[in-house]
Specification:
48% of the residues lie in helices and 13% in strands. The chain contains 22 helices and 13 strands. Mean pLDDT is 87; it is low at 381-387.
């Protein structure tokens, strides 16, 4: 009977996790991962929580307990990085982080003695590097991507730096952040425990988190430590020197993370290699161009390219070797240009600019529409009860192109939303006239 109860607790948690726009496909491996990260009691209580941010008062009501007892449980879950907290106008709120970038990564962002890290690393490797369902769902289930690549600023010319947008620069993200957290690279930590250590021996202490996520991870479970902007810039420089790629949350405002990734361990870069040429993340707005008259075909660029987008080809007529870029696969990160000994590679603007969601809410709404799960955002108990949360979602929908608005309206099937969209169209018509 106890075994059945345990199964039910983890099954309920699995279903709650998959209420997110970003979920985690069920498998025996994922069930084992949940058993490592959550006790049976934790699985049961977390499965009851709303997806949208909630207060201590609301958790106490859901669990039918006192606010003091609820806060103690919530604090413990924050210590394990299974929840993150924030404070708005003196009111403390909590939220369940998604699987990625979220509770899966947080578990290995520091060395922990309370879990079997080797066993967990092996489970992670099986779930993400052997089984394909999670990675395909994470990176390819929606047109709007979870992550985006930052161009390596040192390779840009002064003229290019004058035109690059603020949100395209990792240094700007660092400079604008109130809190910056530094933790271990989950990918390399996982690969090490799974018996596949990093091929380039890249540094581990280069995982950056920002804002309330950084503060919560540092304050509660020391999954990250708060650092200065100067130290964060040093992290970027060390990552540039190690030929790592900067991948952050795919938003223009207040991204929650920037990972410094190697091609051998990072799930996103591994996916780019395995499922080429379909991109798992948004590229930069740059593309490398090779100057044929100065390229000597040394192959250094091909060696450091994290997604194997460069090959060295020989001209049959002249027998001259030269680097050739697969532009369908290229991330536009600039690692190749930084390593070219003859400066034969320079970055040019892509002919079509990449559109980046404004913020996390905008990204969630886009992904929910594309995945057909918009109703999960709208009808989650907390979101439905909160006018502010509903206003954020509707505001994001109203900024979408007409085709996406129509999809949103169809999924929501709401007279209220139809009226909002109709009102917006009429307003635009009047402005045009």
């Amino acid at each position: 009977m106890g075994h059945i109860t345990s199964k039910n607790a983890y099954k309920s948690l699995e279903e709650r996790i998959n209420w997110f726009t970003q979920g985690a496909p069920a498998s025996e491996t994922f069930y084992k991962i949940l058993q490592v990260l959550y006790t049976e009691k934790e699985a049961r209580v977390v499965s009851m929580l709303p997806v949208r941010p909630f207060t201590i008062k609301r958790a106490a009501r859901i669990w039918n307990t006192s606010e003091a007892k609820a806060e103690k449980v919530l604090d413990h879950l924050c210590e394990k990085a299974l929840l993150v907290d924030s404070e708005h106008n003196g009111v403390r709120k909590f939220v369940m982080p998604p699987p990625m970038a979220g509770f899966i990564e947080f578990a290995l962002m520091r060395t922990r003695g309370d879990i079997d890290q080797k066993y967990l690393g092996e489970l992670y490797y099986q779930y993400m590097n052997v089984e394909e369902d999670f990675v395909k769902d994470l990176f390819y289930a929606t047109e709007t991507k979870l992550g985006r690549v930052y161009v390596q600023e040192p390779v840009l010319t002064n003229a290019q730096m004058n035109h690059i947008l603020d949100y395209e620069r990792a240094s700007h993200i660092v400079d604008e952040s109130e809190y910056i957290g530094l933790g271990l690279c989950y990918c390399r930590h996982k690969a090490y425990h799974a018996g596949h250590p990093c091929e380039i021996d890249a540094p581990w202490d280069v995982c950056l988190t920002f804002g309330n996520v950084a503060r919560s991870l540092a304050q509660h479970g020391q999954h990250a430590r708060l650092i200065s902007k100067e130290e964060a810039m040093d992290v970027l420089q060390r990552s540039y020197d190690a030929n790592l790629v900067q991948i952050g949350e795919n938003v223009r405002e207040n991204p929650a993370f920037i990972c410094n990734c190697c091609g051998c361990c990072c799930e996103a870069l591994q996916a780019a290699r395995r499922f080429a040429p379909v991109q798992p993340v948004e590229t930069t707005n740059y593309i490398p161009e090779v100057k044929s008259h100065t390229c000597v075909g040394c192959g250094k660029c091909a060696k450091v390219c994290p997604v194997h987008a460069i090959t060295i080809m020989e001209d049959p007529a002249t027998h001259k070797k030269q680097a050739v870029v697969n532009k369908d696969l290229c991330l536009g990160c600039g690692v190749c240009a930084r390593n070219c000994p003859t400066k034969a590679i320079h970055l040019e603007k892509r002919p079509v600019q990449i559109i980046t969601p404004v913020n996390s809410t905008h990204r969630f709404v886009l992904q929910a529409i594309e995945k057909g799960t918009l109703q999960n955002l709208l009808f989650d108990n907390q979101a439905f009860a909160s006018h502010r949360a509903m206003a954020q979602i509707f505001g994001s929908i109203l900024k979408l192109p007409p085709v996406k608005q129509a999809l949103a309206s169809k999924q929501f099937k709401s007279i209220y939303l139809d009226k909002l969209l109709s009102s917006q169209v009429n307003k635009q018509r009047k402005q045009n006239n």
